[in-house]
Structure formats: structure tokens, C-alpha cells
Amino acid sequence: MHPIVKTILQRLLLGLFTLFLVSLIIFSSIEMLPGDFGEAVLGQAATEETVAAFRRELGLDQPAWQRYLGWVGGVIQGDFGTSFSGRAASGVDRSRAVVDLIGPRLSNTLFLASMTALIAVPLSLFLGISAALYRNSVYDRVVNAATLTTIATPEFFVAYILILFFATLYPWFPSLANVDGNMALGEKLYKTALPALTLTLVITAHMMRMTRAAIINLLASPYIEMARLKGVSSSRIILKHALPNAWAPITTVIAFNLAYLVVGVVVVEVVFVYPGVGQLMVDAVRTRDIPVVQACALFFAFTYILLNLIADVIGIITNPRILHPR
Amino acid sequence: MSEEEQTYSASGEVGQVRQRRTRVQRSIIELKKAPPTALFGMVVVLIYAFVAIFAPLVAPYGEAEIFAQPYAPWGGEHRFGTDQIGRDIYSRLIYGARNTIGIALMTTFLSFAIGGSLGLIAAINQSWLDQFLSRFVDVLMAIPSLIFALMLLSIFGSSTWGLILIIAVLDSTRVFRLTRAVSLGVVVMEYVEAAHLRGEKIGWVMRKEILPNIMPPLVAEFGLRFSFVFLAIAALSFLGVGIQPPTADWGSMVRDNASLIQFAQYDFKGAITPLLPAGAIALLTVAVNFVVDWFLHKTSGLRDEH
To answer: Which of A168, A270, A286 sits opposite B271 (nearest CB)?
Structure first.
């Protein structure tokens, strides 16, 4: 087998295994619930029968491994169970399926994340590479100080400053990003402008610094110096010598930050009341609606693992040393 | 560490009693060489520490004291006005320093205690225990920590101790990795082996032989982890699942007063009230980062960029 295929397969298997363990952890969260939460969910006035029915619905009368298999089986088929909220002590069940809650929000979150990525990735690559090439110049120092400050700032601070200036003092953009599925793309873009801008600022700072560090690291390696000493033109050094080896670190940086973006979305969604998965998760945590929390956690963890996996695979594929095995 | 170059002259060394500088003198010399950003950072950190420690003396009112007028404007009796149920914002900011920083510090210490000791044990053991711990940490780190923290909080509920414990455990994974990585280079040294052969106990070797040698990167990491933990707790409190009222805390203060921003055109001062706690968080993390940057740069070439 070609070594690349072998390495990629290994990496994929490792990713699957991680996913399995992560699903175990997320599943076991319901095991760790203290005491009997049947009464906690249904309220004090719940009759014994309704509590018993609720426990049976959750499968608490079965051993844990059976419930795990049932849960995973359901998740694979797109069934995440039903939400805890909307249940009453009288046994009236107005709860909704978790899928119905998450489904429409999923596309909103992905829309916001991809909009941010489209702006942030090219911008930060440009800033990072140019700062690395002109390092220690005034430009480099300014960009560096600005990004260091942005990194150390909580997302909600950036968000509220943007709201203060662009939504209330100069009402150019709406501060509530209440998008829904029926909106035209233009209006959607307009409404998500501020959340996307907030995320872009935060992500760009991280990504730019990491790109800069990776490129500087690369330019310091002996073969680049050798090329420079033997008189290769600088554009040729960048394109022929540096770039082939730079793909791996750059994709790692991008994927790492997209993964970070997935998490950063949570806070920003809450600030702008953006109807996404992050906000749903925070609400569910507050009301301790475990099935919804589990589904959201699974979504975030899955995206996170997937992005890291993609980065690793691209890193393997573009690594010249594996491409040309001896 | 102590790298004051003293020009060597044989007769000088014979003829003169060598005077070592005291610790205080050495630190003064180091401080004089520190860049302005680091000095700025240190001053800010000191001010925060002062305010946090002497909060009851500095604050005009109590942390949860409620006054008649909610959303009072700036000035007058209440320097920064009052919040939605009439608590003095200035006092809450000051108490918030104590609560938020205190909780973050405690969490960071706990996370270093857990991660550091496990990391050292893993580095010394280097067999099945090391493998087990390392793989376990890998899995924990495969879930974004904010998401993980949210999930755990939904299970155990939001109490301050629960919050400290959850964040500390999640954060200790990074401490574990760093401790293990830096001590791997130390445990193979001859003097560690000699200590083992002398028959010293593991705990003694860890404390007396290895720990002093991995201190500088750990101290720098402490600063970085502190700002991460600080931001994480602020974010969770902002989301309403962290530190619970009536404890004054900067994250939840932002959340409580956020709606004031809408009135910026009419009352600009009132509108930036929610930005005060947020700015306080930002300023402290920036300051800590500056100090850490300088410290890292000084103690090692660990970080090339600056």
C-alpha cells in the first residue's frame, strides 16, 4: 500500500475511535445526573405513574450499555430523542423532538460560521504572511500589538463595542440578528453583519499570529537559508522552496481556528440573539434539558474533530517527504 | 537564571570577597531592563490585586446592597449608576475584582495541582500509566472545552465550587501536556537517576530534583492559563451559567446591563456601563499577557515571536 494511503487510513481510524470515546463521554453525562431527575423534570406534583412512564421512556430500566447502543443507533439515524422541556406533572407531553429544535438552527450556525470563514481566512493569511515577510517592521509591530490585544479580549467585549458604535451610535446595522429561513440572502447577510464581524476580528487575530509564527519558523530553516545564499530570487524561494512545506502548517492553522470558530460562535450567538445551535445549547444548559445539551455537544465535538481530521489529512497529503517515498 | 556577567580577573577573584547581589537587588536590575509593555502589565496587575484584596475598604457600598432607584444615571451618589435592581455598579465592579479574580486564581491553582502532579508522574513512570493518562487527555481535549464545560454544568448545576472544579479539571489537560513534555527532558538526567539510586522516594524526587528545573516554563504557563481560565469563567458567567447572583462578577454584570447599550444616543455614559466590567476583564488579560510575554522572552527562547 502506498504510505500516504496507509497513514491517512490510520488517521481516519484514530478519528473514528476518538469520536466513539467522545460519544461515550457525552452519553455518560446522563448517567452522572445526581438523584432522580424524573421528578425534577416533571415537577413536584408528578404522580408515580407519570414518573415511571418517563423513566421507561428514557430506558432507565435497561442496563447502560443497551441504552448507549440505542442512543448511538438513534443518533446515526438522526434521532436524538425528545427534549425534557414541555413535560408537565399531569403526564401531558408537549415535548418536541430534539431534531426539530436543532435542525433549523444548524443551518443558521453553519451560515454564520462559513460567512466568517470566507472573510477571515484570506484576510488573516494575507496579514500573517506579510507580517512574517516584513517582520520587525513597523507594520509587523502594529499588526502584532493589535492582534495580541484582540486575543486577550473576551468575545462579548468586542461584540458590545461593535454594537455600541455600529448599531446604536451610528445605526447602520441591526443589533439583533434574528434571521429566519425565509429571508432573502441579502437581508440575511445584512442582519448577520455584526456577529460575523465580531467573529472575524477574534478569529483573524488568532489565525494571523499562528500563520506568522509558522511562516517565520519555516523561513528560519536551513534549506531556505541555503537557497538564499546561493542567490535564488526571493519570489522563487517563497514559491518553490517555502510554499510546498508551508501548506501543512497553514492548513493546520486554518482548521484549528475554524474549530475555534465553532466554539466562539456560542458566545456571539447569545450576544446578538442569533438563532443558532450555540444559543440553543446555552438555553438548554440553563434549564438542564439534557437531551438537547447532548445533541448540541455532539454536534460541536463532531465538527471540531472533523476539522482537525481534515487538517491532519491535508497535512499528510501535502507533505513532500511522504509524497516522494524513498 | 542568574546570569550577571562579571568580568573575570584572577587577582580580583583572589583579592576580593565576592559580593552576591541579593534577590531584591537582582529583581530591581531585571525590572529596569523590562520593556514598557511589561512594566505597564505589572502595574495593572498590582492595581487589580490591591483592589481585589482591599475591596471592602475601597468600595463605597456593599456588594448586594439594593438602593431605591434602579438604572440610576452616572454621578451623584453612585459613580457609575445602579443596575437593574438598584445595586451600586461601582461597588459591584470592585467586589467583582475580588470574586472573579479570586475564583479564577483558585481554579488555576487547582488545575496546576492536578495537571502538574499527573504530568510529573506520567513523565517519571513512562509506561502504562503514562500511556493511559496521555490517551485519556487526548480524548478530553478532543471536545472543545467551553462545550464540555457547558455540558458538565448542565449536569451538576451551576455552583461556584462546581464551576471551579469543572474548569480546573478541563484546563488541567493542557497543564498535564506541558508538564509532561518539559519534565521528560529532565527525568533522564543523571542527577535524577542518582537520586533514585540513593533510594529517594518518588515524591521527593518530584519536588526536589525535577520541579525546580521545570519551573520557568510552568510559571509562564501559569500566567497564560490564568488568563484563559479567567476568560472562560467570564464567558460562562456572561452566558448565565457561571457564577450566580447575588455574587458580583464581571461576566454576569455585562449580561445584566447589556440592554443599556441600546440607549447610547440618549445617554452615552449609561450606555457604556456594561462595557466597564467587560473592559476590566480585557485590561487584566492584556496586562497578564504582556507580563508573560516578557517573562517567557527573558527565561528562555521558548517563544520566538514577541
So the answer is: A168
